[in-house]
Every structure is written in C-alpha cells, then in structure tokens.
Amino acid sequence: MAPEKVLPGIYAVKVRRGYVNAFIIADGPLALIDSGLPGQARVFLKHIRAIGARPEDLQNIAITHHHVDHTGSLAPLVAATQAQVWVHSLDAPVTRGEKPVPGPNPKSISGKVLWPVIKRISPRQLPALKIDHEIADGQDLPIAGGLKAVHTPGHTAGHVSYLWPRHGGVLFAGDAAGHMFGRLGMPLGMFTEDMEQARLSIRKLATLEFDTACFGHGGVLKGRAHAAFRRYVEKMAR
Ligand SMILES: [Zn+2]
Ligand SMILES: [Zn+2]
User: Fold this and answer.
1) Bridge-based pairing state of the strands 212-215 and 170-174
2) Helices 195-206 and 225-237, packing angle to 10 deg
3) Ligand nearest to the CA of 102
4) Which end of the chain lies in a sparser environment, N or C, as judged by fewer CB atoms within 10 Å?
5) Does the CA dihedral 132-135-139-140 come out positive or negative?
6) How close is the Cα of 63 to the center of ligand 2, in Å?
7) What is the pLDDT of residue 234?
C-alpha cells in the first residue's frame, strides 16, 4: 500500500478509498495534514514506511478542523510517533476531547434526516488528547520550512487551511471547499456550521496565490488552482 504522490514531497493518503484525504509532507521531518477516520493509524504508519520513513520521523500533525474524518486517528498516531499537534484555538476543545462532537447544522434538511444514522456511527466525544499548539490566523508554522495557517471559518469555527509556498504554492483547503467529481464547490451543508462565513472563507482563499489545491474530499486541483477559486467566487457573486 503506497500513498499517491501529488508533487515532490507531497503524498495523498486516501482513507476508505478516498472518502477523505489526508496528506503527508515529506520535506525534512515528516508532517501530516489531518489524520483520517478512527481506526486508520496503521494505514498511516504503513504509508509512512512505504515512502521510506519511520513512524518517529513524523514530527507534526496540522489539523484543519475537529470533524472526526480529519481527527479520527489523531490520538493513536500521536502515541505511535513523535508528532506535535497543531489546531486552531476555536477547534481545540473538541479535538482535545473536552467538548462533545457537535451534530449537523439544524438548518440542513439532509442533516435532520441522516442525523440518527450518523449519530450511531460517529463518536460522541473524541478521546482525550494533549494539543501542543493552538494556532491563530496568519501564523507561520515551523513545519516543512514554513506552513502558513489561514483561518477559514464557516465549516467549523476554527477551520484552518494551510498554504505551503513551494511548487508555486500548495493550498491544503481541508473542508473550506470541496472538489467532488472534479467540481470546485462549497463544503457539504449538513456538516457546515455557518454557510455565510464559509462563503467568505472561500473568497479569502481566492485572494491567495497557489498553483495546486488539495482537499479533504475530492481530487487534487493542479495548475493555476487559484484561478479556479477566483472563477468560483465570481460565479457566486452573480
Ligand atoms: Zn468537515
Ligand atoms: Zn471532512
């Protein structure tokens, strides 16, 4: 099992056949963007070995937001590696297992219909975990030679996207936007706390320069990816 190479030094880990993506940045000590669903730690460790690294080479895990498909294997991965955890201060209490995992947006009809099913399969609370670093908007993290945290609230209040200024800029959008079936779009309404804020966050991302965009859900957008964000924002305004 090998992770998929996105660009030199970036690998996609497709959890549950691509339901959700996490990304390994292999530039010096390893870093991970997000940590998949619960029960996937072994998959991540296999992927790390497959690129010729050891579990203890994983030094940082930068979380985009507290949802369980992005934080599910965080606690066992931290236990198995040297990793320090980075998360926005507003999403830290849920990620730390201090606050219960919130339900879907009550305004969303699909959320109302599907919530009883989701409730059965998702944990009420994440396992207790020490968060090493609570991050703020615009912070430059000492990860992979510098990784910029961009606060993109809406999907959750503490959602963060990350910009790596290599290869013409690589944006890790998390769930601030989706790229399902090759179409750039809003994150799923059922799981988005505040759609209006989510729209503003996509606008914020569209002002950045990046050639590649990686998403929590959907395929990688390569080549002038920021232009696709700008077109989407223009379309939204019409
Ligand atoms: Zn999410
Ligand atoms: Zn997600």
Assistant:
1) parallel
2) 130
3) 1
4) C
5) positive
6) 11
7) 96
Does the reported pTM lie above 0.85?
A: yes
CA dist., res. 120 & res. 123, Å (int): 8
Inter-residue contact 200 to 154 (CB < 8 Å): yes
* Average pLDDT rounded to a whole number, residues 213-226: 96
Torsion of the alpha carbons at 9, 14, 15 and 19, rounded to the nearest 10: 140
CB 198 within 8 A of CB 126: no
Q: Is 139 left (phi over 0), alpha (psi -120 to 50) or beta?
A: beta
The alpha helices in 2-150, defined as continuous H runs, are 41-50, 68-71, 74-80, 92-95, 109-121
What is the Å distance from ligand 1's center to 64 Cα? 9
From the CA of 37, which ligand is nearest?
2
Please report, as a single letter, which amino acid is at residue 35: S
In this predicted model, what pLDDT tens digit does every residue of 69-97 receive, in sequence order?
A: 999 999 999 999 989 999 999 999 999 99
Supply 141's token pair.
Answer: 């993290």
Ligand 2 ion: Cβ-proximal residues, 5 Å cutoff: 69, 175, 216
pLDDT given for residue 121 in this prediction: 65
Ligand 2 mean position to 217 CA, how many Å? 6
In the predicted model, what is the mean pLDDT of the chain?
A: 93
